[in-house]
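**Backbone description:**
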Amino acid sequence: MRHLMSPLDFSVEELERLLDLANDIENHRDKYAHACDGKKLATLFYEPSTRTRLSFEAAMLNLGGSVLGFSSADSSSAAKGESVADTIRVISCYADIAAMRHPKEGAPLVAALHSGIPVINAGDGGHQHPTQTLTDLLTIRSLKGRLGGLTIGLCGDLKFGRTVHSLINALVRYENVRFVLISPEELRVPDYVREDVLRKSGHEFTEVTRLEDAIPELDILYMTRVQRERFFNEEDYVRMKDFYILDKEKMRLAGPEMMVLHPLPRVNEISVEVDSDPRAAYFKQAQYGVYVRMALILTLLEVNVC
């Protein structure tokens, strides 16, 4: 039995097989429509989510399975003081696989250690968001045809953004990937990511403050929102939230082949006027999220579709 806590839980070769499976699902939906008949997915979401939770549910329903679970800690026995370990022991009696989002770093790992079914980390605090990373990798590979030889700009909240941390961890395994880290001083990427991941891997990276200075050289611009829920006080959040806004004027500085990604939800860091730009790929990215989660469910449940 395997779990997914980090994108590094899969080797590069296993990731390629997973992404190939996701592309096959994209092109042959009917082939997989009953692959998980009789199987149940439990979605254990201790903090709010729209895309991730519904993407998991859509993935399982597309495979012919069913879904049960809760969408907030208040609607679960966590409100009564039940531990994550006890919750997953009980859920293991009801479902075949579980996806867990939790505000505390490491909570899904605790669940995996006590689980009788595969557990997928659907986001744990500011730590990891591996299925978003799988989505990002599938999107980049599908749109660019490769995962190596790219210059990738990561913009916004690089301190608390778990999607950014996971994506960097995944992409340093590919050759000739260059990172441009775009953030205010207060939201720079954490030291452990800078030193233990980027410097240790030997990948080239630069840190800049102005988006305008970086955008002309990028193959991918990965925008992130400033996350109110990660701030300790409202004053700091208000000061940071509008630091970067991608609009038509800034898009004029970008190359014709550059693609804009965003894990969503956006607040106002991407102007709606950018949505009509053919380089805006964030809604395609959300669709790719369903395909990659379908592939992940099949892989962890060891379901083979001929």
